[in-house]
Fold these 4 entries.
Entry 1:
Amino acid sequence: MQTQQQAQQLVEPSALLRSWRSKRRLSQMELALEVGVSPRHLSFVETGRARPSAELLLALAARLDMPLRERNHLLLAHGHAPRYSQQPLQAQDMQPVRAALQRLLDAHQPYPGVVLDRHWNVVLANRAALDLTALLPPELRAAPPQPLNIIRASLHPQGMARFTSNFADWGGYLVEALHRAVLESGDAELLALEREVSAYPNVQALPAAAAPAAPALLVPCQLELPIGRLSLFTTLTSFGTPRDVTLQELCVELFYPADDETARLLRG
């Protein structure tokens, strides 16, 4: 059964290709020459006057660097079967992936680490990260069917924002990252999340926040917690050469101490 999002994509198949070409700032001529078709034929594809083969669509999608989810939508919109699987992380076939991710997170102890899906929902976490979530009020913690969302938990006034001493910098970074994701994907759930957090009073106050006196190499998350002051920076890692939609959309976020005192506190 097709999802509502897939059904919406099927309404105007030619618009999908034009939209992604526009995002990549390519002309019809440039794209056509790079994939080895005539500009005339590409124009016919974009206007719906020609039915492209699945191979041509995949070549266009690869050049446009479309996510696997969008490549499936493009194929479906033009009457072809999707080429990329989409298995839930809890599926039996994904067990080796889950095990590898959990080993990675556990090896990162005593520093926090999480695995996120495309909506910034936490799907796996290590013990250090779970200890931090214990500081959240019940309504922001994971409670099926509501997962823990790291954007919501970080920006909500009663969430980690109340412990974040440099919220102007850290909150601004998160808001900007979310906005970029909305523009890039057009995802309705991300758009709803952006509208939600934009209504938080502390987020609404961010544009008036003063800029930092001097630029830093990294934007840390500085937390004033009962155990002491933590200063953390993050790294983001994704899978290479994925052939599954779920795998491509997973992201590992690992937090590292930005100073010696933070390292000492977390090791203790």
Entry 2:
Amino acid sequence: MLDEKLLSIHQATVLQQWTLKQAIEGVARAKLGAISVWRDKLKEIGAAEAARLLDGHGVKATGLSFAGLVTPPDKQAAAKARDDVRRAFDEAAAIKAPAVVFVAGGVDPGEKDVKAARGRALEALAGLVPHARAAGVMIALEPLHPMICATRSVLSTVKLANEWCDALGAEDAVGIALDTYAVWWDPDLEQGIARAGRRICAFHLSDWLVDTQDLRFDRGMMGDGVIDIPGIRRMVETAGYKGYREVEIFSARNWWKRDPDEVVRTVKERYQTAV
């Protein structure tokens, strides 16, 4: 059996049903001890109140999602985005979350230059490292599926995430977040994970449905799709990762419509049978 102490409920899984307060209470009610916090929900009550609730219920924040979108060619817009990322670092520190998931940003429709967008993202990261280091949080670079390269992230592969880590040379402040939904398709995944090694600072779980109806908001519960989740988990653990397994299921069609306590119960069951 997998250790339930390493199971974290990512707030995205119950995003439409619960406030952050309700989610913390629900996690505690399920006798779990960890939650990954969705930033928009955090803003509703503030980091100080969130920290009080987490401490009061004995629940640990395993991460904060998300910050980034730093690729605009417009200098003013890019500076604003970088300032928001710095605020996210401070928020994570306030709730004792060890990492902030970083979503790079997409391609400007007018420019249509993915290489330039990647260059700006890497340059922005270099400038953000000192703040992350001072806050004591990791920047968790999350490679996302190429389907959203245009709109959300020009960082699409584990290979590229490793290359960015190499370029930044800040192992104490920059790591990699691996999401099964985003990377399962990659023919070089095993090599990329092995190379990442102890850079891996977050591990997200969900499944890819064969009949998916929305590429962002129709994720499956573990075991309902085509991803070899146990296989990827073993790769990650072989690489040296010993941290939390965060269940992150964006599901407008299914799980967001269900009773959230039922969703958490199902997560606990599938954690043992499909992870």
Entry 3:
Amino acid sequence: MVTTDADPLETVLPALRSSHARLAAVAGPLTADEVTDPSYCDEWTIAQVLSHLGSGAEIFDLLLDAGLRGEDAPGPGQYQEIWSRWNGKSPQDQTQDGIAADGAFLDRLGALDPAAGENWRLTFFGGERGLGDLAQMRLGEHALHTWDVAVARDDKATVAEDAVELIVDTLPVLASMIGKPASEPLRVHVTTYDPERRFQLDAGPDGVSLSPAAPSPLPPGGAELRLPAEAFVRLVYGRLDDEHPAPAETANVELGTLRGIFPGF
């Protein structure tokens, strides 16, 4: 997919900046001991989440450069070198350097010439992407990992509202990539609010699909899920559990079944 907006960063970049500010506010003041506390991510400390975002910022820098220069996307070998270097940092350095690298990448995006941004193209992750796609990918990763840190300090934390409004419309592509096949065919009519969206979720032995849907009566015996868009984002990203619930309403389907389709990644 290629974003066609005249300024593809017009809406995404402010949400990224807001997410960065939230991350810095939560993680920046933590002590050397506190950054080794567990994050929401399985087997990752808070510092390791920041390391992931810092190394990710460097990788997104490489992708940005490749598109600007008309070169091929970087390969796994370059990623591995970056990950190894970040893994070798102390927890405190992972945290502080992660915040700094994240901010530097956003500064680069913000300073990009509009014409260069409009013409930016790069083939990676299975298709040709525009700069808006690159920024949107970073937002999904960033906002959810920021929540992984925030919820470790405040179990009532939610994914930022401005990020949810942008991420929710990207869920169909993500769901088909990361959803786990179900043993039996399942169709669920999903309605979200704040913002309002409607989707049809299909899962079965052949895979998972999520597609936008028009308002329509629920067929007899049909499965239905209604919940805040923030909670649906967390569900698809594998982060809607009993310890961090949401006011979800279901009919003819168990929330646990849907969690099994989206166990996280």
Entry 4:
Amino acid sequence: MKLKEICWDKSVKEAVWKKGRINPDYSPDVLRWDEYGRIMMWSKYGRTDSIFGWTIESHDPAGAAEKVNIENLIPVNTYKPEKSK
């Protein structure tokens, strides 16, 4: 479930970012992987036009409907490639 129209403050973004998987070959402050194995870059937050773009989504959509809780939030890659015609 995408949580749209929410402006996350830096502390929430940082807490959710830290839930991303770390690869020891890269700085965890710059690159992490979402739970689907897609790469994300900290500086590409909110970008859907970048293969490294990411956003904050609810891991538990049922719980998110009632209350936005940091435990339910996860970082997710947002890249949506254009379909070729």
